[in-house]
Hints:
Blueprint: E1 22-25, E2 37-44, E3 51-59, E4 65-70, E5 74-77, E6 86-94, E7 99-106, E8 114-119, E9 125-126, E10 130-138, E11 145-152, E12 157-163, E13 167-171, E14 178-187, E15 192-194, E16 198-202, E17 208-214, E18 219-222, E19 228-235, E20 241-247, E21 255-261, E22 265-267, E23 277-285, E24 290-291, E25 295-300, E26 309-312, E27 328-330
Parallel strand pairs: 9-16, 18-25
Antiparallel strand pairs: 1-2, 2-5, 3-4, 3-6, 6-7, 8-10, 10-13, 11-12, 11-14, 14-15, 14-16, 17-19, 19-22, 20-21, 20-23, 23-24, 23-25, 26-27
Amino acid sequence: xxxxxxxxxxxxxxxxxxxxxxxxxxxxxxxxxxxxxxxxxxxxxxxxxxxxxxxxxxxxxxxxxxxxxxxxxxxxxxxxxxxxxxxxxxxxxxxxxxxxxxxxxxxxxxxxxxxxxxxxxxxxxxxxxxxxxxxxxxxxxxxxxxxxxxxxxxxxxxxxxxxxxxxxxxxxxxxxxxxxxxxxxxxxxxxxxxxxxxxxxxxxxxxxxxxxxxxxxxxxxxxxxxxxxxxxxxxxxxxxxxxxxxxxxxxxxxxxxxxxxxxxxxxxxxxxxxxxxxxxxxxxxxxxxxxxxxxxxxxxxxxxxxxxxxxxxxxxxxxxxxxxxxxxxxxxxxxxxxxxxxxxxxxxxx
Length: 350
């Protein structure tokens, strides 16, 4: 018969770290001409702690004043001037001292942009050395937009930005991992929007992967003539050749140029069409396999409109009525639409 013996160690105490609250909010939708509106948000604490909030508000350039405090998740803003920039600051604090501050610029009458993720959005496994993220965004007021890419897995969390284009190449992701990602679009006056979240998976890292040097993914105004493409290899490049493919769709169904070569650069022998989105890919060819590369996009140079041709009043015309004066001209653009025109009037010298 055997007897189990045990001895009890001394007892030590430790405390886990406190995590700060999380604040999420959407940019308030404020129709033009509306001077008063509510602002709502949500606050969550990852540790389940109780939370109190403070809200500060005021015109941009001035010290914001506290307008509310407590456990609320909304405030009503009133008597605001359209077109004026205001700072809204929300400070959330838990009962263990964890604190998060979110600051937002609000411009009454300014509408938020919209943004939609394009790829990757499937469960297909992707090679993790370099993955190209693509999305679409637009602003209803015509403001310029910058973007942030938010990327997260179990062991990897990144925020990349600001990004001016609608594509971003991210390198060195983890192998065999599931990632979530979304885009935050912010216009030049502070209005913002968040896309829906997308999911993709990475697979095993390949022995060799082509990475773009020029044009960069999402690059615009790429020259139409003698366009140069170049890339580098992550991994073993000994004894390999490359299949370069250029197309006009993201599935590469409409191929406009293809060539197999041994160097890592190419000068195109044909001109590109102006103001057009193109897609290109580099496949790595070895003795026993051909590794299909990632697809990257760019946009060719947008040509300016033709010089406007004046029609009325005729040059040198006299006795032109100043009541209901009509100015007429003709203009055209070879690769797009003319969205606006500026008219200049001045008195002749002398």
